[in-house]
């Protein structure tokens, strides 16, 4: 069984977010690994937006396969050594699925496309 999910977001939703003033909000969505990666960039907003899109796309794809609510902080977007992104699911029963991810950001938009296979 295969399911897909896609999401597009305005990068401006994440503009001016800081670890100091927005930590509670950011921790509800992102893991420590994701925040570390995003905030080491001069402009973290596009990276935050792209990861948010990926999480939303995963939720959309899993909605056809899984009947429980998944918190965004249980979906982690990481990079391989070669720079490609991948999904790390932090819920054991969802590790049986295979996830393929593509993310991008340009000017004022970020987008993600996910394929989930069972």
Number of H- or I-type helical stretches: 3
> What's the alpha carbon Rg, rounded to whole Å?
14 Å
- Give the overall silhouette: globular
Order of helices and strands: EHHHEEEE
Low-confidence stretches: none
What profile does the largest beta sheet have? Answer: 3 strands, antiparallel
> How many strands in all?
5
Q: Assembly state here? A: single chain
Question: What fraction of the residues are assigned to beta strands by DSSP?
Answer: 25-35%
Strand order of the largest sheet: 1-5-4
The secondary-structure class comes to alpha+beta
Mean pLDDT: 96
Kindly, what is the distance between the CA atoms of the first and last residues, rounded to a whole number of angstroms? 5 Å
Helix content: 25-40%
Map the helices and strands:
Layout: E1 2-10, H1 19-29, H2 32-39, H3 45-62, E2 75-79, E3 85-89, E4 98-106, E5 109-117
Antiparallel strand pairs: 1-5, 2-3, 4-5
Helix pairs in contact: 2-3
Describe, in plain words, how this protein is organized in 3D.
With 118 residues, the protein is α+β, with helices and mostly antiparallel strands. The chain has three helices and five strands. The strands form two sheets. It has a three-stranded antiparallel sheet, covered by helices on one side. The longest helix has 18 residues, at 45-62. The mean pLDDT is 96.
Concise overview:
The protein has helices at residues 19-29, 32-39, 45-62; strands spanning 2-10, 75-79, 85-89, 98-106, 109-117.
């Amino acid at each position: 069984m295969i399911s897909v999910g896609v999401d597009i977001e305005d990068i401006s939703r994440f503009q001016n977010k800081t670890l100091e003033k927005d930590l509670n909000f950011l921790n509800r969505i992102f893991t420590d690994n994701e925040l570390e990666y995003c905030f080491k960039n001069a402009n973290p907003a596009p990276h935050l937006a792209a990861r948010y899109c990926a999480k939303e796309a995963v939720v959309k794809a899993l909605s056809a396969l899984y009947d429980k609510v998944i918190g965004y902080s249980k979906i982690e977007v990481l990079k391989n050594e070669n720079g490609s992104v991948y999904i790390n699911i932090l819920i054991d029963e969802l590790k049986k699925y295979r996830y393929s991810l593509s993310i991008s950001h340009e000017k004022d938009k970020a987008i993600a496309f996910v394929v989930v296979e069972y």
